[in-house]
Structures are given as C-alpha cells and as structure tokens.
Amino acid sequence: MNEGLVLAQVDDEEKRGCLIEVRCRQAETLRNPEFREFVREICGQILEGGACYVSRKDVPWEAIRSEERTHRLEAETSFASSERIDDYLLDKMSAWYAQVCLLEQPYRKDPSRVVGQVLEGLQHVLGDRVELQRFSRYEVTEERKP
To answer: How far apart are CA 146 and CA 141, in angstroms?
Structure first.
C-alpha cells in the first residue's frame, strides 16, 4: 500500500468534522471518481457518528472484555443453559461491533449492505486493494463553566 489519501470533511453547521486516511496500491485509484465519492460518503458516515474503530482488529482487548463481561452477566441472570448464554453473547457482541466498527456498520446509502461489503465491491470495480487505515472525528461541544 504505497499510495494514500487523507480527506477532511465538515458538516453543514461546521460543528463536526472528520479526517480519514485511505490507502491503495495504484495512483490511478486516487483519481477515480467512484473511489473519491466512496471516501466522501464514508466521511459522511463517520460524521453521523457511532464508529470508533475501522474494524474489529482495531478494538482494544480491554474494551472487548468489558463489553463481554457486561453481556455475560445479563445472560447468566436470564438463561440457565450455557448454549443459550453463548448465543446471547454472540448476538450482543455482533450488534456492538456493528455499532463501533466502521466496516461492520450498515452503509448509509444502501443499508442492506455493510461498509465492508461496499468496500469489497469497490475494490473489484477498481482492480485495486483499498484499505481504510484510520479516522478521527471532531465535534464542538458546549463549554463547561466551573
């Protein structure tokens, strides 16, 4: 991945913004209108909120363990069988990952697919590997008075 793009986007009210870094192998990909539109759409998705990480591999182990512990306690009070507890945990953790991982979120232009699926389709069209490396979201918050 030797080619890259950093894109910044700000919402209409100029209260929220994001930066995203995207990498690919071919310089031509960076100039492709479909690629650029996809990156702009992803910025919009980031601005809408929710995602904290690009993918599951980026989620800190401590956050995963904490979320699992919370749901395990809920499951153990609701279900007697370990199989039901495991199913419950799997469902809850999958839903949590869909909230916090950008690649697992429903794509805002086509909620029937997740961002990762749209990215895979784009890679096929472009004939290039594209990776969402990282992003940051910024928001103006109210000042707290002492």
So the answer is: 15
Instruction: Report whether 98 contacts 116 (CB < 8 A).
Output: no
**Contacts by 109-115, CB closer than 8 A, 24 or more apart:** 109/41, 115/42, 115/45
For the chain, which ranges sit under pLDDT 70? 1, 80, 145-146
3-class DSSP string for 69-109: HHHHHHHHHHCCCHHHHHHHHHHHHHHHHHHHEHHHCEECC
21: enclosing H helix or E strand: strand 16-24
Tens of pLDDT, residues 109-128? 999 999 999 999 999 999 99
